[in-house]
Write a structure and sequence with these properties.
Layout lengths: L1 H14 L7 E5 L7 E2 L1 H8 L13 E2 L7 H11 L3 H14 L11 H10 L3 E6 L8 E5 L1
Parallel strand pairs: 2-5, 3-4
Antiparallel strand pairs: 1-4, 1-5
Length: about 140
């Protein structure tokens, strides 16, 4: 049994990490994208990538630092904990090289923000109703 578990674990590592299936990445419905790489999403939220392929500015939106969904997103997509992301942004802000994405109070507010801003990208759990936005696959 242990060998089977080890084989399954090694196979999962070999295939690469994928975003948590309970999380959904959402974009404005006019965005033609249907699938994004995990790296693209991470780069968008860390503002290492600032434009969509059509040259529209990427506008990521975050949940508050203490929100459990943000912690889940940071681990699953950014491969960092919330504290490491906070330190990343503190360095950039201090050096004048960037500002973090805006925070909104709830997952419903993430949906509303993304629906309102054509270049936006956000994340919510699979239980949130998606009105005026679309979920995209993350590979």
């Amino acid at each position: 049994m242990r060998i089977l578990c080890l084989i399954v674990a090694l196979f999962a590592v070999a295939r690469g990490a994928h975003a948590d299936p309970t999380l959904r990445v959402i974009v404005h419905p006019k965005n033609p994208i249907t699938t994004l790489s995990k790296q693209f999403v991470a780069d968008a939220f860390l503002k290492k990538r600032t434009r969509w392929s059509d040259d529209t500015v990427i506008q990521p939106v975050d949940l508050p630092q203490k929100h459990s969904v943000r912690a889940k997103f940071c681990k699953a997509v950014l491969d960092r904990d919330v504290g490491a992301v906070r330190r990343y942004w503190a360095q950039l802000v201090f050096s004048g090289r960037g500002v973090p994405p805006p925070d909104v109070a709830s997952e419903d507010e993430v949906v509303a923000y993304v629906a309102k801003h054509p270049g936006s990208i956000g994340y919510v759990t699979s239980t949130v109703t998606l009105t005026g936005v679309k979920a995209v696959g993350v590979e």
